[in-house]
Structure formats: structure tokens, C-alpha cells
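QA checklist item 7 of 12: single-chain prediction sanity check.
[x] sequence parsed
[x] length recorded as 267
[x] structure emitted
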Amino acid sequence: MSYTLSRLRERFGDLLFRREGQTMVPTPRATQLFGPLHEALARIDAAVADPGSFDPGSYSGGLALALTSIGEQTFLPQLMGALERAAPGLHLAVERLDAEQVEDSLVRQRVDLAITVSLLGTPRLWRTPVRGVEYVALSSGAHPLPPTGPDMFTGRRFVRVSARGGHVFPLQAMVEHDLTDQVAITVEEYASVPAVLQSTSLVVLLPRHVAEVFCGWFPTLRIAELPWPGHSTPVSLYTRLEAALSPAQRWFRSVVLDAVVADDYRA
């Protein structure tokens, strides 16, 4: 190991790893090299694998999917039904999606697939849109919003949800329309929002398909159209590039895509 590391240090002109206490820590140069080397090894593995050797019905391994909390609520019901039928022995690990870490997590194979509204303009990933995103306002039926118009949010206070999952439109809209001073609470996830709305007069801006899910849980919630354009980049599915995928990962991508893609985005 020490001989190999010495040769690598000489080859790259860098320590690559340094000792901190009892731990060997990678240098910035080693971290930079990891992605391309890992991808190259994955391509070799994919090239020598037999594409016809994967049998989902007998597969008992694990695969990882990165989703936001609203992605879990929106996509997991139909996805788990499809996976249960096709691969009953599969273990699916759902990881919490951080928009800033998606590319790195995919390249390093910490996750196999990610679904996010964030637009990742990178040549290292494969991407396909799966549904459009239109934002609406949601509030309690006990405190309905007035008809859609420029003054519909006058006197109302908001729940703001962190943009860490990729949904940046609500904050952008609130800044543009001078609504940030009306924020009453900021939360990390959407999961608690419908219960908060149910018991208060607060309002939230969120994707229509999520609002419809919440209205199914809390029938007294009410959706209102926004007084300005409310479309953002579409939700997209991301994986590593085709040549870097294993047969199991290719199968997984096809199942997820078929389960979550909206009708108007099907080829």
C-alpha cells in the first residue's frame, strides 16, 4: 500500500492523503481525482457485465434513490407498487436530497438515481424531464384567499420552505413581489406544512401536484392560482451516464421513469 501510494504521489505531484490524528484524510487534489477515476472504473464494470444477466425477480440487493420530502410524498406510492411487483426482494434506500450535493452523490455512487427540480447543467450526468412544475398558493378553507389578483396576499402571512431541495421559485417570487416581510415561519421540509395551514391563516407557495396531494390528506385546504406566472424548470430524473450504469441501475432507471413520468412527458 505504501509503495503504491508513493508512486501515486510521485505521479500526481501531491501527497494525496495526509494523517490527521489516527485518520488518513484526502487532500483537495485526491478529492478532485476521485470523480473521474470512479467513473472510469464504473464504465469498465459496465462494459464487462452481461446486460442480459440481470433478473429483477430474483434480485435481493439494494438501490438508492435521492428525493426531497415532497418527492417522497409524490412519487413513492406509485414507485413502490411497481418495484414490489417486479423485484419483491429489492431493498430501496431513500436518501434525503440536497440540491447542492446531487451531482457528487451520483458520481460517487452514494445514490443510484435522483429526482429533483434543480437544473444540473453537467456533462457527467444523464437527465430526462418527467413533469412540469406550476406553483400555486395553498391555505386553509377557514381562511380562504380572495380571488386571484395583485392584492390577494395583502395582510396575509406565509410559511416559507427552505430551497435546499431545489424549489427556489417560492423565495424568488416572494422577493420579487415584496412578500418576504410577511413570512411568519421558515421550515426545512414541506411535510409539516399542511397541518400548520389547517390550524392557522398562513399561506404557502408550492407546486400544484404537491398541493393536490396535501388536499387529499386535508380536504379543507384550498388551492388558489397565483397572480403572476408560476412555472419553473421541470422535475427531472438524473443518473450517471449510460456507459457508467450497471444492468441493475439501468433497469431501476427504466422502472422509476415509467412510474413517475407525467403523461405529457412520455415519449
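[x] summary fact logged: The first helix runs from residue 2 to 12.
[ ] second reviewer sign-off
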